[in-house]
Design a protein that fits this description.
Helix 2 (about 50-55) runs parallel beside helix 3, helix 7 packs across helix 9 and helix 10 (about 350-355) packs parallel to helix 12 (about 380-405). Strands 2, 3, 5, 8, 9, 10, 11, 13, 14 and 17 form a 10-stranded mixed beta sheet that branches. Strands 1, 4, 6, 7, 12, 15 and 16 form a 7-stranded mixed beta sheet that branches. This protein has helices spanning about 35-40, 50-55, 85-95, 115-125, 145-155, 260-265, 285-295, 305-310, 325-330, 350-355, 360-365, 380-405, 410-415, and strands at about 15, 20-25, 45, 65-70, 80-85, 100-105, 105-115, 130-140, 160, 165-175, 175-180, 185-190, 200-210, 215, 220-225, 225-235, 240-245. It contains 13 helices and 17 strands. Strand 13 (about 200-210) and strand 14 form a beta hairpin.
Length: about 425
């Protein structure tokens, strides 16, 4: 019998719905600050006048970047910003593709806020839109936190390239916390230009100390003068975010034309290899392996998914290595129950079909090239990885375009010097 899922929340803001599940590390011995602790300082409220002035920088009804300056001390270590849903509707109703940019001394938040979702939420909860607030918080980390994160990352073969920050995004209704689900945004940091980001092995990571899991995040970077602009995707939950180098290689692809794609997917945690230092690129991909790659690509797996797969599929046991991945795809509606056929093979068209159902990938795919054909009726592991890498590039292109919009009109020195008035 199909297990009932959670109540589906509207997607309140849209960024890149991609967070690659990498590995699980030891959970912190110390307790991670809860939402109230992270909220810490007095909130900085974005006023209707600020929104009105930001919208006035472009013609009404014209797609624009809505830049909102957060006035705070340049050396602030913790910031909490509030934006009322009524102001979100004003931005959205001007143009649904307006990009909201919150400039703070600790980094820049950016997102396409979904006004219709906030209207839906107000109607479902029977509250006025003015009683709904979005809170975005960012804070620096202390020495003990940084050391714990560094050790946890190094145990998984990762090297930190920048200091972690803690980020959260939440919805509050009638003065009470409502949810941190449905939020996906971009967060931009400025790092020294000499920070060594490798195109293949470097990425941003999210880390949840409550369960010890890392997630690779879509990341792009560009150098401007003596600073490097790094833009990554973040979600609403209170997580740490930081840039790492995560070198993972396989002995049997070092000279192959697809080696970069294989190593990028390994660095992002999408593939694991065969456990003996090899990848076996010519082997046909199985349905179980595809389920694992897809679930890792979107960080779908949750506790209980393996048991769910055993209930949903006649040929899956809860202790099968792929059960959690199959259960995640079933829970999210990508797979139907019945027979899973884990050892069956897949075509390149089937891999593309799973991706191109996503509107973001559909819009970006024409810019990343034609479909990669399989050499035979079924896709090999190397061909599958090349397709996944092509899809990741589509997400990176989307993030790059957002970074360019953030950069337009950006005055970094002015941002650093903003103070409370």
């Amino acid at each position: 019998m199909k297990r009932a899922g959670k109540r589906k929340l509207p997607v309140l803001c849209v960024a890149m719905l991609l967070a690659v599940s990498v590995v699980q590390a030891p959970v912190f011995a110390g307790e991670f600050p809860d939402s109230a602790a992270v909220a810490g300082p007095e909130p900085i409220v974005i006023t209707p006048e600020q929104v009105e002035q930001a919208l006035a920088h472009g013609a009404p009804g014209e797609e624009k970047t809505v830049r909102l300056a957060v006035r705070a001390d340049a050396d602030a270590e913790h910031l909490l910003v509030r934006l009322n849903a009524a102001q979100i509707l004003a931005i959205y109703d001007d143009h649904p593709r307006n990009l909201v940019v919150l400039e703070t001394p600790l980094g820049v938040f950016a997102s396409f806020l979904n006004g219709d979702a906030f209207r839906q939420l107000a109607e479902e909860l029977d509250v006025a839109v003015e009683n709904i607030w979005v809170e975005a918080a960012v804070r620096t980390t202390g020495p003990d936190e940084r050391e714990q994160i560094r050790r946890a990352a190094e145990e998984q073969g990762m090297t930190l390239l920048a200091e972690p920050v803690a980020v959260k995004i939440e919805a509050w209704v009638n003065g009470e916390f409502f949810t941190n689900e449905g939020f996906d945004a971009f967060f931009t940091q400025w790092l020294p230009s000499e920070t060594a980001l490798d195109r293949v092995f470097s990425t941003a990571m999210g880390f949840n100390p409550k369960n010890g899991r890392f997630w690779a995040k879509t990341t792009v970077s560009s150098v401007h003068g003596d600073r490097q602009m790094v833009t990554m995707t973040v979600c609403g939950c209170v997580h740490y975010y930081f840039v790492v180098t995560n070198v993972k290689t396989f002995s049997d692809v070092l000279d192959a034309p697809y080696r970069e794609a294989v190593h990028r997917m390994a660095a992002h945690g999408i593939i694991k290899g065969t456990g003996d230092g090899a990848f076996r690129p010519g082997r046909l991909l199985t349905r179980a392996e595809l389920a694992a790659m897809a679930a890792r690509f979107y960080a779908m797996e949750e506790e209980g998914d393996a048991e769910l797969a055993a209930e949903a599929f006649d040929d899956v046991d809860a202790d099968d290595w792929f059960a959690g991945y199959a259960g995640a795809l079933y829970r999210t509606g990508i797979l139907e129950g019945g027979r899973f056929n884990p050892n069956g093979h897949v075509t390149a068209d089937e891999i593309y079909a799973a991706f191109l159902s996503n509107e973001i990938v559909q819009s970006m795919f024409p810019f990343v090239g034609e479909r990669i054909p399989a050499g035979g009726p079924y896709a090999t592991r190397a061909e599958a990885v090349t397709i996944f890498d092509q899809m990741l590039k589509a997400y990176e292109l989307f993030t790059e375009r957002v970074q360019q919009r953030i950069l337009q009109g950006w005055d970094h020195e002015r941002s650093e010097s903003r103070t409370n008035e």
